[in-house]
Amino acid sequence: MKISHRFKRLLAPGTGRQAIQLTEEGEASYPLYYFIPSLSKDGRHLVYHRYEAGVVQLWRLDLETGERQPITQVQSPSADWRPWQAETGLRGVMDFRSVLNVARNEVLYFNGNRLFVSDLQSLKSDCLFELPPDREPIGQNAVSPDGEWFFFIDAPVGSEYNKPCQGAKVVGYHFSSGDQRILFEVDSPIHHVMPFGNEHVVVNHPPGKLGMMWASLEGEGYSLLRENDPDAKGVVVHQLATRRGLAYETFYHPAGAVTGLYDPFTRKRMEFCLPEYFGYTHTGWDPEGRFWFWEQCNVSRDQMKTGKTTGSHFEGHTMVYLDELVPGEHAVFKPLIGDWPVSASGQRPHFHPQLLPGNKWILFTAGDSQRRPQIFLLDVSDLRTLDPLDRNLLTADGKNDFYTPGVLQV
Question: Which candidate, 261, 314, 309, 305, places its Cα nearest to that of 283?
Fold first, then answer.
């Protein structure tokens, strides 16, 4: 991956790591959601949202030249993602619901109820299908790694998280045939679907609670992961699909926040405690499941429990990584960046970090000189051989969990 010298270089606060600012336009610029790719297969083009004056569009950034071009010019109303990015009158593409099909070099986005595909090279767009007028796409979507299936969530118009809803669906659309397959239906709005391999998906959250739902292309309904496993304490808030299992973090139990790795086929897991000061946390995404890092927001666990984070402004963030893990003894965490102020509502100010292919850069959102959310790269090339976790630690009864609370070393 070549990075143009036109982009601004700076030092990350707190650690002095090299950072590169990729965007500087609009009221906010942010990648596609952090558990799906935003970077093309050849590493040259970044697909991202640009928000300005109440409108969200998709753009393409050439990392080698710095050239940027609009992918969409959509003016559909009601493009907000309720309640996580609720903004009355928001227009454009359906916010946070676009997907990059890396295998086919295509971008998928909803223009209202119509799903469009745009070739990332020519930027030519075509409509693939349209949802009925009494339905709407309410969740974050994904594509299978082989590029054959588009997984999406739709529900009755007006459905909203934590409110009654009948007949929300997780659906697979097959690109080659145009066929659609219902993986499962559930009487509750659900908002995240991600592939685990080419034939399974992980969805959250189950009706009336947090957690992970597991389903396959066979369309045989869903099962719950971890919730009923031996000694499973707390509930999963966010999870990410990696080649070694599901990476996740939990809250809401006396021992504090726990992070872990889960094998959905064997139902084995390993877990350890996050530092006590961790509040509202996102586990960073390494598709290989080897490099472990977290975004830590200045939102307390009490705010998280009461739901007061929705629509909030997050004025400060840090990012840390796991440097050492000694089973049964201790976990050592070190900072990647110190407090990096960013100010915006809803999802846009979150770092939502992901490790890019090649293990040299973390892609994330942070504040520019005016604290507006923009897209950055963070140099982690010195950490690319780090692999503190051993899959052999996975057990069926959870006996490897709750290590001594983590220690942050500066």
Answer: 261
